[in-house]
Structure formats: C-alpha cells, structure tokens
Amino acid sequence: MAEASPHPAGAPSREPLLDKEFLARIERLSLLSRATLTGRMRGGRRSRRRGFSTEFADHRDYVPGDDIRYLDWNIYGRLDRLFIKLFEEEEDLTVCILVDCSRSMAFGEPNKFRYARQVAAALSYIALGTEDRVGIYPFDRTMRAPFPPVRGRRNAMRLISWLGDLEAGAGTGLLESLTSFASAAPARGMVILISDLLDPAGYKDALRTIAGRRTDVHLIHLLSPDEIEPVVAGDLRLVDAEDGETIEVSVGGRILEAYRRTVDEFRAGVQETCRRFDIQPLFTSTGTPFDELVLGYLRARQIIG
Amino acid sequence: MTWLTPSMAWFGLLIPAVLILWFLKMKRRDVEISSTLLWAMVLDDKRVNSPFQRFRKSLLLLLQLLVIILATLALMQPEKQGEIVAGRVHLLLLDVSASMAVTEGGSTRFDRAQALAKQRIENMGAGESAVIIAFDHGARAVTPVTDDRGELRRALEVLEPGVSATRIGPAIELAVSIGERQNDAVAVIYSDGNFEAWEGKLISLPLEYEPVGTGTENAGITSLSARPELGAEGGLRIFVEVRNPGVEPAAGTLSLHLGDVPVRVAEHEGIEPGGRWSHTFEIKGDGGGGGGDVLEVLWEPRDGDALAADDRAWIVVEPPSTVTLWQVGPPNFALDDALAVLPHTHVHTLTPEAAKERLAARDVDLPDLIIWDRTAPDEMPRGPAHLFLGALPPGVWDPEPPLVERPPIISWDQEHPLNRFVRYSYLDGEIPEGWVLPDLPHSKALLDSRGGALIRTFRTESSEGIVVGFDAMRTRWPLQTSFPFFLQAAVAYLGRSVETVEGIRPGELIAIEGGSGVESYRVTDPAGRTREIKASADGWFRSAETDQLGLFSIAWHDAKVVDETGKPFEWARIVPVSLLSLAESSITPQGKISIAGGELTEASANRTLARKVFWPWLLALAVIFLMGEWYFYHRR
To answer: Bridge-partner residues for A279, per DSSP?
Structure first.
C-alpha cells in the first residue's frame, strides 16, 4: 500500500507506455482466441461463417440467386445436381479492452493505472499486428468515451498515444460501466478486462454482464504489492481515495494476518466467479515486471502466442 | 488483609475515566489508500475490531491503569495483621551458649532461635527498629539500633553458638542500658532457658521469652579438680564429676588421658536421671604429677548424647617448686603438723623477735611466704606474701576492724581455689571472737559471717596475703581435715607453687603476671593459631578471648631476667579451658525463666498484633510506573 502515488493521482506519465525494444519483441505475436470468431471484415483469422475465401469448406444445394461462379461443376457432371461450393471466410477479430480508470487504480508502486495501460497497449499492438480490430473502453463510475475499434498496425501508435493520455478518474462503477459496454459491444469477439475490481458494490454482477455471450472474456486482476502485503503499523485512519470514506484501525501483527487472509479470500472469490461465468482470470501484481507478464504469463495462459 | 480506608476505592472510578480519555485522545495517522474495501472486510471480524485488541498494543494505557490501581490501593491503606510486636524497638537477645549447639531434628537450637528472630525482623513495621544482642557468659550488641533489616539479617547470619556457659545477667543489663534510651522498647530472649536465675534489680523493660529446643538427654563432666597427695610419695588425686540432668539413665565410660595416652578408665552402668557420678582417679609415680603434664578427662556416653562440649575437660599439672616460708609466732603444734606434710615446702620457725631481726637485716634471703601466727610485724615487709592467722596486717585496715563475739557463719566462697576442699560449717558459733574484716579494693571474702568477712584476701601496693580474722587454735578447726587443706591451698596460692592448673571456663579471663620486663605474650589457642599479644603497661597478660575449649598456651620472656648465658629466660604456661557447667549440660529447655524475681513464660501471652502497612510500597510502585509511562511517552 503506497501512501502516495509516484505521479499525481490520475495524471498521465510523460514516459511512453511501450518502448521500441519491447514493441520489437512482440512484433510477431498474435492474440489467441479460444474460438473462431466472427468479425465484420475479412481478417487474418478463420471464421465459422462460410464465405468466399480460397479455403474450401463445404457444399450446399444451389438455390436461385446464388452466385453461379461458385457452382461445382464437377459434382454436377457426376451427380447431375447443382451444388454451391462454400469456402471458409477469413474474418478479423474484434478485441475489446476494458481499462479500469477509477481512482483506486492510480495507487501502488509501480502504479496500477500505468501498468494497466501498458498491458492494454501491448495487447492492442499485438492484435493490430494480426489485422484484428481493437477498441479501448475506459471506465470508472461509467463508461468513458472509447477508442473506437480500428484495424491495422498503422493505428497502433495512435492507439498507444491515446492510452498514454488517459487519466484516472473518480470512483469505480463496475456494474454500470460493464452493463453499458455490454449493451453496445459486438456480440462476438474477445473482451479483456483490466481492473482491480475494488468496487464497494461488488464485482459479480458486473462480470456476469460481459460473460455468457459468444465472446472470449479474459480478466486481468491487478493489485499492487502494497495491497497484497501492506506495510503499515500503528493507529491509523485509512482514507478511501475514491469516496473519502475512512476506517480507523490499530494495525498490528494479528490484523495484518487477517488482512492477508482477506486478500486471499477476495482473490478466491474472483476466481470462483470467473469459473462460473467462463471468464479466464489472471491474477497479477504490479510487482511483476510488465514485460514478464506479457511475454511470460500471457503466453503461458495462451492468451497470446 | 484489612483496609484502613476502603472508601478510597472510589478512586478506582478513575480507570473508566482514563479509558474514555484514552479513546478520545487517541491520535491516528491519516493514510490514503486505494480502497478501504479490503480493510472493511477485515474489520468485519469482531476480534480484530474489538477495543481490547487496541489495548493490547498500548503500553502507555497499561501503565496509566497500573498507576491508578496502585494509587487507589495505596489510598485504601491495606494492612496485614501480622506477627507480634509490643514496641517499636526490638532488643533481640540471642543465646549463643554451648547448649544452643544441640542438634534436634536436623537443625540446632540456635538455628531455630535465628529463624524466630528473623521472623520478628521481617514483621517489623514502618518506623520500628531492632538491635541484636548475643549473649553467653557475657553479652555484646552485634548491631546498632537500626531499622535496616538487611543489616540485622546479615548480623544474624554470622552468629553461631559457641562453647561458653550462659549468664543472662550481662545480657539483661545491656538490654536495659540500650532500652532506657529508647521509647517503647521490648526485649525478646531467644534461648533454651538453661541459665541461673538473674536476681538483679527490678527492670521496667518489657521482656518476652521465646524458648527453643526439645531434647532432654545429655550427661557431661561438670567438675574436674586435682589435688596432690600429701606426704613424701606425692602423686595426684583427680576428682571428676559427671552429671546426668536428663530423664533417662546415662551409661558410659570415663577415661583419663595423659597427653594422648589413656592411663585410667572407669565405667558406669547408668547414672540415674538427675544424679551424679563422682569418680576419683589416683596417680602415683606412674607419669602423673610430673611437671607440665596435661591431663584430659573424656566422658563417652554409651548411647551418645546431644552436647559434645561437656564431654571433655582438661587439667594441667605444673612443675612444683619449693616454697620457702617463715612460720612466725608462739609454738603451735597443730600448725607445725599441718605444715610438715606439705610437699615441696621448706619451713623456718621463728619467734616474732627473730623474725623482726631477720627482716631488719639487709642481706637476708626473704621467704616466699610468711605465716604470722597470732602475731604481726610492725611494718609490712615488702616481697613475701603473708598469711595472718588470728592477727591483723599493719596498715591495711584503718581503723582496726571491730571484734565480734561468736560470729554466726553465713557462707563461704566455694568456687575460690582456697576453699576448694574446705568446710567451715562447724565453725558456726564456735569462734570465741573474731575481726569482721571490711571490704577492700582487690580483696575477696572467703568466709562470711553475719557481721562481715572473717577470712579475706588482701592486696596493697606493697604486699598481698590472706587474713584469718580469728584465732583458729581456739576452735576445733585444726582438728578437722579441712585445716591442712586450707593451709596447703594458702601456701600454694600465696607461695605461687600451684601444682595443678584446673583452668578456666570459656569466656573467663586469663591473667598472668609475667613481670615488668615482659613486652608481649605469644598465645597459641586450642585450634593451633598463634598470635602475639602486647603486655599491659605493668607487664601483665590479660585476655578474655577464651571462647574455645581446650588448651591455651601462653609463652613469654622477661628482658630483665636472663639465664647464665645472658639470654632472656623463657616462661610458658598452659591454661585449660573446659565447659564444666551443670547449667549448660542441662539441655532440657525451660518453659519459664526467672528474671529479676519475675517469671517469664513463652512470649505468646504478651503478644499484641502488629500492623504491617503496605501503602508506601504501593505508592512507590505507582511512582515507578508513572516514570515508566513518562519515559515511553517521550520516547514515542
């Protein structure tokens, strides 16, 4: 638990989120979805939708109005029936990255908010490199103006710059924000939520809203080392950065032990909720170097590959 | 435990007041955190959110509460109704005599007395003080009057029983002299009560008696003396008395040792309870009676006994020297016969006139002793000792002592060596007339009549001697055996031809007149330790440091007395120290003792409850905790 952020709360750091060296290392990576997904445009990955790419997929009976260019004359010669050749359509993947911009994310050393934006930037860069569509959806109490989905690596720098300019805002409204997102988000695709889930209203209903669809949902649950293993002692009045609420506590060994137990229970609860809603959770701390998370943990979990 | 002012318990209400203030004053440090969500979940647990959990970490609060509790208790003035005290100054008289060394149940009587005295010291209240007085044959204060319990305890610890007999008199006199200077003093006697009743003047000091001891069985040597056999053959008769003050018969063996060699042994099958066994060892020319011999008598009880100190006694046979004496007076066949049997005595019989002539001559050898038989010189000659029989020494009493007809005999000093084997009872009413001899400095009455002493020693600057203030020839005394015994003792005493040294008792004074040229005496005690003791200005050796049983050896030389080679002549004397006390051998603890005509029983009757207050300690603790609180507060 840091008593103060290295940067003024919510103020963007002037340091670029990703350096060139790191970008070079993730150049050839791509996002791995658990399912073949439907996109709007022909992209760099196979879709379940049958289309007209070069990869033959199946046949179906001809019906009037079908493009006669796709009639399979060979079968007609053998069977005297008209079949239309179907090909697998290569579609793009829409990747929606939800970044928690609440004030609680502006704490920790390293700072959770910067860390979240770095992860978002890295995933975006990887996705854009495989012609997937990437949209950034920041939220705090409500959804903020998103970075609309774009395609192509040419948009990568603009997206990263936009992420760099994001500022942490007010309190957390997970349910309201994710409900709002779910109502407008594409029905298919990949959703990556990066948050500390520290919402007094809870996180379960909020996670429910983005699950249960034909989407591949990932949660990167981010806490700072100070939140996992606080280094405080004595008679304290703890002030909540988001809503100013205070708690008086005399911190000693027994209370710290109870706190650690509570953190473990909190994470266990998140894991259980994710299991119920078919969400892939990844618990991490800003104490884990960012590049290690991207190149190590995310690859190990087959989120990128 | 009682509370003098229990109403002060209301001050205990300060405790909740402090708790409230503590809650109000507790300063917390503001710390901004990302979210209180997790902490709120922690504090849902009552255990960690309870007020008592906070108390656990507050040393300051704990110290403050302790200060209040202790101060409140101090205000309530707790007291303990404890041991006894009857005064504010305790004069603790501890018996350190030989009988206190008796071991009973694994500890000595003195251990028990020590424990009782220590308990008394521990129970002293604020403002009370004590002094420890150790007594046996004498008494000494081993501490000043002090309220320092540590000093009193330390003084108690180093005390231990000795080998002396007990005399309560000096202890009481010392206690009274200390108690007179104190207000509200009380004396407590810790003893087995085995001492002679003290018949001193009435005292106003309150006395208590704490008897110690349980055992009763002990028999020991209570008397030892020796007498040279009269006649030419010489030899010694050693008289030993063993007393059994216990309640069971005591059997045992009595042996006489010459040096380390047993020369005589006698056995007794059972001395009756309260009885005595008087035994005489006779030694004739078989080694006993020689010069400088040490005789030791050893009593070995068959079943053992409680006190070892009274099982041994010593006597020393000094080399006899010939005494030259003049017998001056009219013819006296009874005196002639009596003197004729005395060994090592050379007698010259002279008429008063012849004696006067000799004394007037310048180059005459003076005798060691002159017996003036019914005659006296005009002037006391310097040098010899004198025995006046029915005559008065000139210039000693002025005016002349009165003559009394048929004086009734009251008593005689049986302890004096001159009276050791003498009885005077048949002289009662038998003396036609006699001088009643008034007391003098350095004089001792040997025979007392109702009007005063009839036989007395005297000592002036120029002479010393014995005066028998009546004409013995007009009585039956010369016909009695005690007459030659008296003469023998007188000749030995005055002629310094003491053949036996029967010794002294522990604590008694050894006095030796070595001569004016003696500068120091070399003393070797029974433990073998030798030390040099400076002679007094007149060349005497005097020491009362005789608190060991056994043989003290004193050696000296006189620079003025040289032998034929010109070297100073060496003298030595052995002084035996033996217990020889029936009071000490009687170990049966006495439930009551007699002091100044009054009887004292166990102290319980006189006990009063003492107040033992604790508030000063509680207050001191409260101040200490307060200082601790101050320290921690500022350190924080």
So the answer is: A217
Domains of chain A by residue range = 20-36+92-300, 45-91
CATH architecture, range B86-215+589-607: 3-Layer(aba) Sandwich (3.40)
Chain B residues inside the 8 Å CB shell of A240:
33, 35-37
pTM, to two decimals:
0.44
Please write the tens of the pLDDT for every residue from B387-428.
999 999 998 888 899 999 999 998 988 877 788 778 888 888
CB contact under 8 A, B29 and A108: no
**Residue pair B317/B224 in contact by the 8 Å Cβ criterion:** no
Within 10 A of B550 (CB to CB), how many other CB atoms are there? Answer: 21
A150 dihedral zone (left: phi>0; alpha: psi -120 to 50; beta): beta
Say yes or no for a CB contact (<8 Å) between A247 and B36.
yes
B27 touching A, CB under 8 A? yes
Query: What are the respective helix, strand and coil percentages of chain B, to the nearest 5?
Result: 25, 35, 40
For domain B323-498, which architecture applies? 3-Layer(aba) Sandwich (3.40)
Distances (CA, A) of B629 to A164, B14, B27, B625, B633: 54, 17, 17, 6, 6
A106, A237, A266 member nearest B29 (Cβ): A237
Q: How far is A13 from chain B (nearest CA, A)?
A: 19
CA dihedral (B120, B125, B126, B129) positive or negative: negative
Under an 8 A CB cutoff, do A1 and B33 touch?
yes
CATH 2.60.40.10 fits B220-319, yes or no: yes
Identify the CATH class of A20-36+92-300.
Answer: alpha beta
On chain A, the residues whose CB falls within 8 A of the CB of B57 are 250, 252
Q: Between vectors from CA B99 to CA B97 and to CA B101, what angle results, nearest 5°?
A: 90
- B40 CA to chain A: closest CA distance, Å? 7
Q: Chain A within 8 Å of B31 (Cβ-Cβ)? A: yes
pLDDT (tens digit, 9 = 90+) per residue, A96-112? Answer: 999 999 999 988 888 89
Interface confidence: ipTM more than 0.95: no
